[in-house]
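Retry 2 of 3 after timeout on previous attempt. Resubmitting structure tokens to design endpoint.
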């Protein structure tokens, strides 16, 4: 368990607390974060860690995080330790924590538990869901526009990911003659398997890739760049890694959502149950476009996103 009392962070907090009107954390005592893996993935887990830092600085509360908590026994031990530290808001940064929190939460009625993308029940349990079907749809439109071989590929982690179906629907909307190849790594961080899928797809002539797994996406994008092909980033804006290789990215602003949730809890306004977030909530966006994507098409995508925000309808549903 590591407590975030780094020297530089304390300096920032002192400056912020002296010159801003941040909300008072009246119901919030301390915050804990449980991670299935580590914060060094440059993706999903790191963004959760960034969200914890935002809570620490903006709400001026102590925060704790624990990495590689991936079994029920480890979750139970970590929660017990956090409870002793007077933590009353715990984030489980991933789908696996929904099931664990459903089972454990009744033993800690004074703690509110928050997980992601799983189904939960209970008065003190919340699950945050990114409506990622739409972000996948817009990524599919971009991939279909930019492929030269009329073949695009998705290297996904799991079949339940809504962005996978969204991507295929977006490709079909943009150009229904394009072939879409999908492989499932069945793990968020299995780089070797992901790269093997990439090699196989490359032999099939695929030239645009969507690596929808936050533990291996960087490795895939780097290899795609070496091959002179195109990719679409996942979770974070990966244009800084792939340059013009990254046509755009499907960005989930997890760090911002952490702050929103903590503020709602501090005001006694955090609802239990399953909550859903989308483009309209400002927590999903597309990242920077590559310079190789035609400007008129960039404008078309932005207009489609704006229409979706207003109407809730994707282009195929107009």
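Retry 2 succeeded. Sequence:
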């Amino acid at each position: 368990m590591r407590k975030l009392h780094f020297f530089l962070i304390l300096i920032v907090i002192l400056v912020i607390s002296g010159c801003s009107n941040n909300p008072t954390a009246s119901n919030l005592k301390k915050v804990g974060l449980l991670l299935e893996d580590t914060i060094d993935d440059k993706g999903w887990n790191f963004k959760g860690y960034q969200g914890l830092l935002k809570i620490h600085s903006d709400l001026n509360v102590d925060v704790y995080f624990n990495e590689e908590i991936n079994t029920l026994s480890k979750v139970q031990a970590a929660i017990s330790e956090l409870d002793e530290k007077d933590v009353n808001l715990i984030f489980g940064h991933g789908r696996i924590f929904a099931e664990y929190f459903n089972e454990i939460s009744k033993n800690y009625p004074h703690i509110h538990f928050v997980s992601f993308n799983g189904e939960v029940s209970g008065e003190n349990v919340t699950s945050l869901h990114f409506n990622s079907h739409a972000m996948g749809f817009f990524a599919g439109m971009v991939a279909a526009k930019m492929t030269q071989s009329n073949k695009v590929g998705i290297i996904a982690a799991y079949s339940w990911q809504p962005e996978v179906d969204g991507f295929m629907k977006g490709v079909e909307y943009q150009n229904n003659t394009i072939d879409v190849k999908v492989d499932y790594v069945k793990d968020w961080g299995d780089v070797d398997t992901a790269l093997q899928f990439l090699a196989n797809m490359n032999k099939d002539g695929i030239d645009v890739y969507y690596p929808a797994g936050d533990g291996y996406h960087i490795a895939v994008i780097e290899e795609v760049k070496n091959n002179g092909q195109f990719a679409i980033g996942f979770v974070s804006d990966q244009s800084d890694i792939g340059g013009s290789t990254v046509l755009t990215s499907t960005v989930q602003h997890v760090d911002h959502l952490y702050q929103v949730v903590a503020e709602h809890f501090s005001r006694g306004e955090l609802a239990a149950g399953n909550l859903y977030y989308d483009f309209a909530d400002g927590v999903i966006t597309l990242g920077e476009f590559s310079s190789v994507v035609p400007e008129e098409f960039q404008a078309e995508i932005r207009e489609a996103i704006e229409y979706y925000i207003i109407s809730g309808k994707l282009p195929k549903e107009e």
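Attempt log closed. Confidence is low (pLDDT under 50) at residues 3-25.
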